[in-house]
Amino acid sequence: MERHDLARAIFDAAHLTGEFVLRSGATSNEYFDKYLFEADPVLLREIAEHLAPSIPEGTEVLAGLELGGVPIAVALSQVTGLPTLFVRKEAKSYGTAKLAEGGTIGGRRITVVEDVVTSGGQVILSCADLRERGADILGVLCVIDRQAGGPEKLAEHDLALSPLFTMDELKASQQA
Questions:
Q1: Whose CA is closest to 122, among 6, 23, 4?
Q2: Which of 135, 122, 140 is nearest to 54 (CA)?
Q3: pTM greater than the 0.90 cutoff
């Protein structure tokens, strides 16, 4: 699938119209439901194939952030053969009390995977937790940059964001 066609397919699958209350409490007449493209195996595979070339050289493991980054990281793992960590928003307080499941963090070169980046807040927190446990974060990949300041805020924490698409690119795919 060509990049433009993938953008159109993601937009078609996930863009909803109606009346929606956003996390901020504001009301919107449109909503982008990222889980609709993540739950589609054909789209998920195409996303992984298009995102794979953006993985920084030297990456040893992909770290999918809870919840939306996990399916993207798993699909990337299938395409690249790289192992995956499943990173919680906070370490669980029971059992093994791990922040990430699926392997060790310390001393590994990690690329963090998220589905959508808005402000970058959770990515920054999760990367700080991973670094605290000895990870070397090589970069952050996402499917969509909502263009709400995320890349700039991540850069302040020495985190380079590589989005597959911006929200403007997804919207522009409907014009052609």
A1: 23
A2: 140
A3: yes
